[in-house]
Amino acid sequence: MPDRIAEHYERHAHAFDDARRKAFVERGWLDRFLLGVAKGAPILDLGCGAGEPIARYLHDHRHPITGVDASEKMIALCRTRFPRERWIVGDMRRVALDGMYGGILLWDSGFHLPADDQLALIERLAKWLSPGGAMLFNTGGERGTAMGEQFGEELYHASADPAEYRAVFARTGLFEVAYKPEDPAAGGRSVWLVRKPH
Predict the structure, then answer these.
(1) pTM for the whole thing?
(2) Do residues 49 and 15 make contact, with C-beta atoms less than 8 angstroms apart?
(3) I want to staple 110 with a disulfide (CB 3.0 to 4.6 A). Which of 1, 4, 106, 184 is the partner?
């Protein structure tokens, strides 16, 4: 269930990190995302894991990073690897942040939340996105829940319907740059790239 996600990743932090460091399939999407992020602008990475490979890629492109993850072990690895960045242990739905971000990532993480929580979170994130900034996230293809499997354990996933995400974009003034359903570069999930007008 969704309330056990943090415990799952805490138990398997090192195994997840080891596997994740060997798989960087989303580079193309990150490159598209960074086209919409001002040079040197801060980026918020929700569900940042242990910082490999995504935070490293952002760091190498000289973007200050604020990473949020519910796993203390994951954040400890981030702090070891990138001590000058800002790392926060917390629930992405309730984390308190100040300032604005040129880019926001919700990659391979938001879909562990119930659909309505995802929609509320995206609406909240739109307020933290700087004018002209970009947001990248991935979801399922239709409203519903599914149980995946990782390290021999069930893992909760959920999604809203594409029309529901688009309704949030309309309410918050975001515009859709790209949408690709069932993209192999996202583990067969749907990818959304949106921007906030200047």
Answers:
(1) 0.91
(2) no
(3) 106
